[in-house]
Amino acid sequence: MRSVNLTNTRQQLKTLNYHSVDEIKTLIEAFENCTLPRIEWTHPAHLTVGLWYLTHYSETEATNRIRNGIQKYNSAMGIKTTKDSGYHETLTIFWIRIVSQFITTQPDKETLDLANKLIQNYANKNLPFEYYSHDLLMSWSARTNWVKPDLKPL
User: Fold this and answer.
1) pLDDT in 10s for each residue of the chain, 154 residues
2) pTM score > 0.85 for this model?
3) CA 147 to CA 89: how far, in whole Å?
4) 43-46: Cβ within 8 A, 24+ apart
5) What span, in angstroms and rounded, lies between the C-alpha atoms of 148 and 136?
6) DSSP 4-55
């Protein structure tokens, strides 16, 4: 079993920053055109896409664009939704709500600063397990439909 140095991983995530809005726009364009290399479709990239749509559209429109965009991207990459992988509705909605709440708490609405702060504050992709039991979150029902948290409310 490979050992992971969490201190180094956290440090790397803390130093991951966008240097320009153009970098973010390039990510969004590649996501929308399904040309983003799969290796670059990371948790920070997911957060950035969510932030972009939530700051450019209503929450309903942003949610639809994010959901449809991920499904389109997955399809283009040959990623099938199965019991263990692919699109996950509950995780998508969970992160949309986290990003939306984050945006409302920020006095500075400048995209570059928001994106960098969002990644620094929410780099832990295991955050949903503070709200959901493993069995519920990994269930087929949660993968295919929005399921409310069972450990604590959002």
Assistant:
1) 333 333 444 444 444 789 999 999 999 999 999 999 999 999 999 999 999 999 999 999 999 999 999 999 999 999 999 999 999 999 999 999 999 999 999 998 899 999 999 999 999 999 999 999 999 999 999 999 999 999 999 9
2) yes
3) 8
4) 43/123, 43/125, 44/13, 44/16, 44/119, 44/123, 46/95
5) 10
6) --HHHHHHHHHH-----HHHHHHHHHHHHTT-S-GGG--HHHHHHHHHHHHH
Question: In angstroms, what CA-CA distances link 15 with 2, 79, 87, 113, 121?
Answer: 24, 30, 28, 13, 12
Give me the amino acid identity at 31.
Answer: F
CA–CA dist 4, 13 (Å, integer): 14
